[in-house]
Amino acid sequence: MADRLTPEQRSWNMSRIRGKNTKPELLVRRLLHSKGYRYRLHGRAGNSRLPGRPDLVFAGRRKVIFINGCFWHFHDCRVGQHAPKTNATFWEAKRTRTKSRDADQCQQLKAAGWEVLTVWECELKDGSALEAHLVKFLDAPQTGAR
To answer: Which UniProt keywords apply (predicted)?
Structure first.
Protein backbone atom coordinates (compact mmCIF):
# COMPACT_ATOMS: atom_id res chain seq x y z
CA MET A 1 0.00 0.00 0.00
CA ALA A 2 1.47 3.27 -1.13
CA ASP A 3 -0.57 5.43 1.25
CA ARG A 4 0.93 4.00 4.44
CA LEU A 5 3.31 6.26 6.33
CA THR A 6 6.66 5.16 7.60
CA PRO A 7 7.18 5.39 11.37
CA GLU A 8 9.37 8.46 10.80
CA GLN A 9 6.65 10.17 8.74
CA ARG A 10 3.99 9.33 11.32
CA SER A 11 6.21 10.67 14.11
CA TRP A 12 6.78 13.89 12.19
CA ASN A 13 3.02 14.29 11.59
CA MET A 14 2.19 13.64 15.24
CA SER A 15 4.80 16.15 16.43
CA ARG A 16 2.94 18.88 14.50
CA ILE A 17 -0.33 18.40 16.42
CA ARG A 18 -0.64 21.19 18.95
CA GLY A 19 -2.12 21.05 22.42
CA LYS A 20 -2.48 24.80 22.88
CA ASN A 21 -3.79 27.59 20.68
CA THR A 22 -5.62 25.17 18.39
CA LYS A 23 -8.14 26.42 15.85
CA PRO A 24 -11.12 25.30 17.98
CA GLU A 25 -9.63 27.00 21.04
CA LEU A 26 -8.97 30.24 19.16
CA LEU A 27 -12.53 30.24 17.82
CA VAL A 28 -14.00 29.93 21.34
CA ARG A 29 -11.59 32.52 22.70
CA ARG A 30 -12.52 35.05 19.99
CA LEU A 31 -16.22 34.42 20.56
CA LEU A 32 -16.00 34.91 24.32
CA HIS A 33 -13.71 37.93 24.07
CA SER A 34 -16.11 39.61 21.64
CA LYS A 35 -18.87 39.10 24.23
CA GLY A 36 -16.77 40.89 26.87
CA TYR A 37 -15.61 37.86 28.87
CA ARG A 38 -12.04 37.92 30.13
CA TYR A 39 -10.09 34.84 31.10
CA ARG A 40 -6.69 33.37 31.76
CA LEU A 41 -5.19 30.74 29.49
CA HIS A 42 -4.07 27.18 30.04
CA GLY A 43 -4.79 26.48 33.67
CA ARG A 44 -3.53 29.53 35.50
CA ALA A 45 -5.54 30.84 38.43
CA GLY A 46 -3.41 33.48 40.04
CA ASN A 47 0.01 31.96 40.69
CA SER A 48 -1.11 28.32 40.77
CA ARG A 49 -1.86 25.76 38.09
CA LEU A 50 -5.17 23.96 38.05
CA PRO A 51 -5.55 20.20 37.52
CA GLY A 52 -5.72 19.36 33.84
CA ARG A 53 -4.65 22.85 32.77
CA PRO A 54 -8.04 24.04 31.49
CA ASP A 55 -7.93 25.99 28.25
CA LEU A 56 -9.85 28.97 29.69
CA VAL A 57 -9.98 29.96 33.35
CA PHE A 58 -12.51 32.45 34.71
CA ALA A 59 -11.03 32.83 38.19
CA GLY A 60 -13.55 35.35 39.53
CA ARG A 61 -16.40 33.07 38.53
CA ARG A 62 -14.58 29.87 39.63
CA LYS A 63 -15.33 28.35 36.22
CA VAL A 64 -13.13 26.64 33.65
CA ILE A 65 -13.61 25.53 30.06
CA PHE A 66 -11.86 22.68 28.30
CA ILE A 67 -11.95 22.67 24.48
CA ASN A 68 -11.42 19.08 23.41
CA GLY A 69 -10.88 17.43 20.05
CA CYS A 70 -13.43 14.69 19.52
CA PHE A 71 -10.94 12.08 18.26
CA TRP A 72 -8.27 12.64 20.88
CA HIS A 73 -10.65 12.67 23.85
CA PHE A 74 -12.90 9.81 22.67
CA HIS A 75 -16.13 11.82 22.32
CA ASP A 76 -19.29 9.90 21.51
CA CYS A 77 -19.79 11.64 18.13
CA ARG A 78 -18.91 10.08 14.77
CA VAL A 79 -15.37 11.54 14.72
CA GLY A 80 -14.66 10.51 18.30
CA GLN A 81 -15.74 6.95 17.67
CA HIS A 82 -13.53 6.52 14.60
CA ALA A 83 -11.03 3.77 15.32
CA PRO A 84 -7.68 3.88 13.52
CA LYS A 85 -6.93 0.73 11.60
CA THR A 86 -3.16 0.85 12.03
CA ASN A 87 -1.76 0.25 15.51
CA ALA A 88 -5.35 -0.04 16.79
CA THR A 89 -4.42 -1.46 20.20
CA PHE A 90 -2.07 1.43 20.94
CA TRP A 91 -4.65 4.06 19.94
CA GLU A 92 -7.46 2.42 21.88
CA ALA A 93 -5.33 2.36 25.04
CA LYS A 94 -4.06 5.92 24.55
CA ARG A 95 -7.51 7.39 23.97
CA THR A 96 -9.01 5.43 26.87
CA ARG A 97 -6.28 6.78 29.19
CA THR A 98 -7.00 10.31 27.96
CA LYS A 99 -10.72 9.93 28.67
CA SER A 100 -10.00 8.55 32.14
CA ARG A 101 -7.52 11.33 32.90
CA ASP A 102 -10.06 13.94 31.76
CA ALA A 103 -12.65 12.53 34.19
CA ASP A 104 -10.14 12.51 37.07
CA GLN A 105 -9.12 16.12 36.40
CA CYS A 106 -12.75 17.29 36.23
CA GLN A 107 -13.43 15.57 39.54
CA GLN A 108 -10.40 17.28 41.13
CA LEU A 109 -11.55 20.67 39.87
CA LYS A 110 -15.11 20.14 41.13
CA ALA A 111 -13.80 19.01 44.52
CA ALA A 112 -11.83 22.28 44.69
CA GLY A 113 -15.00 24.30 44.05
CA TRP A 114 -14.64 24.93 40.31
CA GLU A 115 -17.38 24.47 37.74
CA VAL A 116 -16.27 22.71 34.56
CA LEU A 117 -17.55 22.89 30.98
CA THR A 118 -16.19 20.79 28.14
CA VAL A 119 -16.68 22.13 24.64
CA TRP A 120 -16.29 19.48 21.96
CA GLU A 121 -14.86 20.20 18.54
CA CYS A 122 -18.07 18.96 16.88
CA GLU A 123 -20.10 21.58 18.80
CA LEU A 124 -18.26 24.39 17.01
CA LYS A 125 -20.25 23.87 13.80
CA ASP A 126 -23.34 25.62 15.17
CA GLY A 127 -22.04 29.03 16.26
CA SER A 128 -25.29 30.36 17.71
CA ALA A 129 -25.91 27.23 19.79
CA LEU A 130 -22.30 27.31 20.99
CA GLU A 131 -22.58 30.97 21.96
CA ALA A 132 -25.82 30.35 23.88
CA HIS A 133 -24.28 27.37 25.68
CA LEU A 134 -21.16 29.29 26.71
CA VAL A 135 -23.07 32.38 27.87
CA LYS A 136 -25.51 30.24 29.88
CA PHE A 137 -22.60 28.46 31.59
CA LEU A 138 -20.65 31.63 32.36
CA ASP A 139 -23.60 33.74 33.50
CA ALA A 140 -25.17 31.09 35.73
CA PRO A 141 -24.56 31.72 39.45
CA GLN A 142 -21.79 29.75 41.10
CA THR A 143 -23.29 26.57 42.59
CA GLY A 144 -20.36 25.01 44.44
CA ALA A 145 -18.99 26.05 47.81
CA ARG A 146 -15.54 27.59 47.85
So the answer is: DNA damage, DNA repair, Endonuclease, Hydrolase, Nuclease
